[in-house]
Write a structure and sequence with these properties.
single chain; Proline iminopeptidase; AB_hydrolase_fold; aminopeptidase activity
Length: about 400
């Protein structure tokens, strides 16, 4: 069998949330992030920009200017950019979402805080304790869960009943189980794909969206990373990925790996899973991370990560069209959103974030100039914390 990869009226916004380059009425007056992507670039400090804003309001005296400056600082405070300390969950559990699948979930932070759901990457990557650190634990009720077949969810690495639409139903079942009326959605890499798909399916349940490392699961994105495009940048890492496959099967690596990841022989599965996972882990950072690369040696992690990723990619994300997520932006255009993208992201190259930005200019678009793909890179982590702080300020103002 030849697989395909190789051959309304909407409510008003909950707040007057605009891209931060326009918050104060002109691109030069942003007080948020020097790594933003305004239409024009200026180098004013935050204080100078706010004083210029005060001057534009015709305050004459130094005292009036100073008072106006302080008022504006209260309205647009400096955003925290450091990761929060490690915390432990205050509750954990398992939710049976089908006759076959049970998903692991946890809650941390403030039980009475604003709910936010974290959607992990992969698919198949699972969550980790460090994922909690992007959120203010005094403000947010932080919900993490492992998607079907990943992490602590069972059955492990299972592909049956495992589609994007199944995951979207699981998110809704979890929201209902935790008695949450609506929540903020946070997702990176594949998590950005799922965050968009979920939000487009249930826009009335979403208070805000933070996305990182945009992946729209289009054919050109799959081909870039798995059919030789990224090999131009990482030829050494690519050789390890390529060499597992005989030359006569290299016309489509996705298909060749699909065959091996679903082999009846366990060692064939594990060998393919290790090679697949190491390729991604070796390319996930601007500067390679040995700790990340070692994850490819963990057969338990690699099998779920590689099998589930490949399953979703072979099936084109289970979307009805290649541009499905971009075609449905209108459903979420009114929702407050921040997009964070590493300039040198090889796994999910910036072309996808740029396409999303063009389709959704209302979203706050931030490009990190010295980062690759991983959320654990300092610049990306800082922007993600700042994005959640910005969401927090909007909620507090309302």
């Amino acid at each position: 069998m030849r697989l395909g990869l190789c051959s309304r009226t909407h409510p008003q916004p909950r707040s007057s949330f605009l891209p931060h380059s326009r918050i104060l009425g002109t691109p030069s007056l942003s007080s948020y992030s020097p790594i933003s992507f305004p239409r024009k670039r200026f180098t004013f400090s935050g204080r100078k920009k706010l004083i210029l804003r005060a001057q534009n309001l015709d305050y004459k005296s130094e005292q009036q200017l100073s008072a106006a400056y302080m008022d504006l600082r209260k309205e647009f405070p400096e955003l925290k950019r450091n990761l929060y300390p490690d915390i432990e969950p205050y509750s954990t559990g398992f939710l049976k979402v089908s006759d076959l699948h049970t998903i692991y979930w946890e809650q941390s932070g403030n039980p009475n805080g604003h709910p936010v759901v974290f959607l992990h990457g992969g698919p198949g990557g699972g969550t980790s304790p460090s994922n909690r650190r992007f959120f203010d634990p005094e403000f947010y009720r932080i919900i993490l869960f492992d998607q079907r077949g990943a992490g602590k969810s069972t059955p492990h690495a299972c592909l049956l009943e495992n589609t994007t639409w199944d995951l979207i139903e699981d998110i809704e079942k979890l929201r209902g189980h935790l008695e949450i009326p609506e929540w903020q959605v946070f997702g990176g890499s594949w998590g950005s794909t799922l965050a968009l798909a979920y939000s487009q399916s249930h826009p009335d349940k979403v208070t805000g969206i933070v996305l990182r490392g945009i992946f729209l699961l289009r054919k050109k994105e799959i081909d870039w990373f798995y059919e030789g495009g990224a090999a131009a940048i990482f030829p050494d890492a690519w050789e390890l990925f390529k060499d597992l496959i005989p030359e006569n099967e290299r016309g489509c690596f996705i298909e060749a790996y699909h065959k091996r990841l679903n082999s009846d022989d366990n060692e064939t599965q594990f060998a393919a899973a290790r090679a697949w996972t190491k390729w991604e882990m070796m390319t996930a950072h601007l500067l390679p991370s040995e700790e990340t690369i070692k994850r490819g040696d963990d057969d338990n992690f690699s099998l779920a990560f590689a099998r589930i990723e490949n399953h979703y990619f072979v099936n084109k994300g289970f979307f009805p069209s290649d541009s499905y997520l971009l075609d449905n932006i209108e459903k979420i255009r009114h929702i407050n959103a921040v997009i964070v993208q590493g300039r040198y992201d090889v796994c999910c190259p910036m072309m996808s974030a740029w396409d999303l930005h063009k389709a959704w200019p209302q979203a706050d678009f931030r490009v990190v100039p010295d980062a690759g793909h991983s959320a654990n890179e300092p610049g990306i982590g800082a922007e993600l914390v700042a994005a959640n702080e910005k969401m927090k300020n909007i909620i507090n103002r309302n």
